[in-house]
Amino acid sequence: MQKFPMTAEGLARLEEELRQLKAEERPAVIRAIAEARAHGDLSENAEYHAAREKQSFIEGRIAELESVIPSAEVIDTSKLSGNQVRFGAHVTVVDEETEDEKTYRIVGQHEADMKKGSISISSPLAKALIGKKVGDSVEVPAPGGARVYEIAGVRFV
């Protein structure tokens, strides 16, 4: 079984999502299907088809979470420190072309969320940053051409 690195917070979020899907979402969609069935002809029943589609999504996500959670290798980031970029680090980078500054946290692939500023350890940016130190520059391949970033800060929380 392949292990996936993950933060304790990321694992807790996935476990909570699985609990919610099993305890709340699955029963609700089963009730919606039963109610839609009661309306008669299923071939032209949009409510029934929508509920079945939602059920399919929920069951797929439950199966995915049930395979990912046991494969998680939790890394305790609270014991990490230093100025070298590693898994769990909050890394502040400056785009050398635009001078834009952004901070990302390097996390496992199943917990990454760009909206929350977390990037997957397997992303091109994280791969370029791993092992580097404050002051280093990294070149990252991007669809519009390579980007160069300078590491302005590394912290572990």
From TrEMBL:
<dbReference type="GO" id="GO:0006354">
    <property type="term" value="P:DNA-templated transcription elongation"/>
</dbReference>
<dbReference type="InterPro" id="IPR028624">
    <property type="entry name" value="Tscrpt_elong_fac_GreA/B"/>
</dbReference>
<keyword id="KW-0238">DNA-binding</keyword>
<dbReference type="GO" id="GO:0003746">
    <property type="term" value="F:translation elongation factor activity"/>
</dbReference>
<comment type="similarity">
    <text>Belongs to the GreA/GreB family.</text>
</comment>
<dbReference type="GO" id="GO:0070063">
    <property type="term" value="F:RNA polymerase binding"/>
</dbReference>
<dbReference type="Pfam" id="PF01272">
    <property type="entry name" value="GreA_GreB"/>
</dbReference>
<keyword id="KW-0648">Protein biosynthesis</keyword>
<protein>
    <recommendedName>
        <fullName>Transcription elongation factor GreA</fullName>
    </recommendedName>
</protein>
<dbReference type="InterPro" id="IPR018151">
    <property type="entry name" value="TF_GreA/GreB_CS"/>
</dbReference>
<dbReference type="InterPro" id="IPR023459">
    <property type="entry name" value="Tscrpt_elong_fac_GreA/B_fam"/>
</dbReference>
<dbReference type="Pfam" id="PF03449">
    <property type="entry name" value="GreA_GreB_N"/>
</dbReference>
<feature type="domain" description="Transcription elongation factor GreA/GreB C-terminal">
    <location>
        <begin position="83"/>
        <end position="154"/>
    </location>
</feature>
<keyword id="KW-0251">Elongation factor</keyword>
<dbReference type="InterPro" id="IPR001437">
    <property type="entry name" value="Tscrpt_elong_fac_GreA/B_C"/>
</dbReference>
<keyword id="KW-0804">Transcription</keyword>
<dbReference type="GO" id="GO:0032784">
    <property type="term" value="P:regulation of DNA-templated transcription elongation"/>
</dbReference>
<dbReference type="InterPro" id="IPR022691">
    <property type="entry name" value="Tscrpt_elong_fac_GreA/B_N"/>
</dbReference>
<comment type="function">
    <text>Necessary for efficient RNA polymerase transcription elongation past template-encoded arresting sites. The arresting sites in DNA have the property of trapping a certain fraction of elongating RNA polymerases that pass through, resulting in locked ternary complexes. Cleavage of the nascent transcript by cleavage factors such as GreA or GreB allows the resumption of elongation from the new 3'terminus. GreA releases sequences of 2 to 3 nucleotides.</text>
</comment>
<dbReference type="InterPro" id="IPR006359">
    <property type="entry name" value="Tscrpt_elong_fac_GreA"/>
</dbReference>
<dbReference type="InterPro" id="IPR036805">
    <property type="entry name" value="Tscrpt_elong_fac_GreA/B_N_sf"/>
</dbReference>
<keyword id="KW-0805">Transcription regulation</keyword>
<feature type="domain" description="Transcription elongation factor GreA/GreB N-terminal">
    <location>
        <begin position="5"/>
        <end position="74"/>
    </location>
</feature>
<dbReference type="InterPro" id="IPR036953">
    <property type="entry name" value="GreA/GreB_C_sf"/>
</dbReference>
<dbReference type="GO" id="GO:0003677">
    <property type="term" value="F:DNA binding"/>
</dbReference>
